[in-house]
Specification:
The protein is α/β, with parallel strands linked by helices and 234 residues long. It is built from ten helices and eight strands. The protein has a single domain, classed as TIM Barrel, CATH 3.20.20. α2 packs across α3.
């Protein structure tokens, strides 16, 4: 397949991040939504054998580095703009701030949806991988998006948005079938992500050919986990 962007092979992923579990250390509500608390989660994940961390905002990335996280940090910067549904590291500005904060890999929305400021996916991949010198992970939702991202030369693909775009299929659990379809057709490593709630889910993804699996809610959304134990009112 012809590559129209930076050749992903300039980034040797086994030298950057091992195969295995990536823990998404994010929180959505106080009191956990603090950089130092998320850094503590990240340190615990590293102690337990995680190969990488996914973290939101430059502040959280920088704090994790300052507090001693040594495994790769996949940085994202969720930011909303008018007239665009893209919010995962939507522009070059967010990518630059993540790079300055110390992110090892930068994850961005890998869909073809319109982006803020007239930027394109191809431009953003090129800016990060050529200009900032960091590997890009594309968060995709369909096989078509994965193939396009591979053509652009992304270093990694992740099924993060499967079931979360209006046109992708929503499965009850992780979309293992999507991983099975993507892996044989692309040249770069693929991560499973989205609705991974059990160790068995992770095993299935790795057996399907995933390079790794990103788990967030089941591990670091403490409030979500507590609700599983609260007796239901009758």
């Amino acid at each position: 397949m012809q590559n129209t962007g930076t050749d992903y092979r300039r980034f040797n992923m086994p030298e950057i991040m091992d195969k295995g579990l990536v823990v998404s250390c994010q929180a959505w509500h106080p009191p956990l939504m603090r950089a130092d608390i998320m850094a503590a989660f990240a340190l615990s994940a590293e102690r337990c054998g995680a190969v990488g961390i996914r973290a939101n905002t430059p502040e959280h990335v920088a704090t994790m580095k300052e507090m001693g996280v040594t495994i790769p940090i996949i940085g994202i910067y969720k930011k909303r703009y008018e007239n665009s549904d893209v919010y995962i590291t939507p522009t070059q500005e967010e990518a630059r701030e993540l790079a300055e904060a110390g992110a090892s890999i930068i994850a961005i929305d890998g869909t073809k949806r319109p982006r803020p400021n007239g930027e394109t996916l191809a431009d953003l991949v090129r800016y990060i991988q050529d200009g900032l010198g960091l590997p890009v992970m594309l968060d995709i939702s369909t096989v078509e998006e994965a193939l396009f991202g591979d053509q652009l030369g992304a270093a990694l693909l992740s099924t993060t948005l499967a079931g979360y775009t209006p046109y992708s299929e929503k499965t009850d659990g992780p979309d293992i079938e999507l991983i099975k379809k993507i892996v044989p057709q692309v040249s770069c490593p693929v991560l499973g992500e989205g609705r991974f709630h059990t160790p068995e889910d992770v095993i299935k993804a790795m057996e399907a050919g995933a390079y790794g699996v990103v788990v967030g809610t089941a591990l670091t959304d403490l409030e979500w986990r507590i609700r599983q134990f609260v007796p239901k009112k009758v």
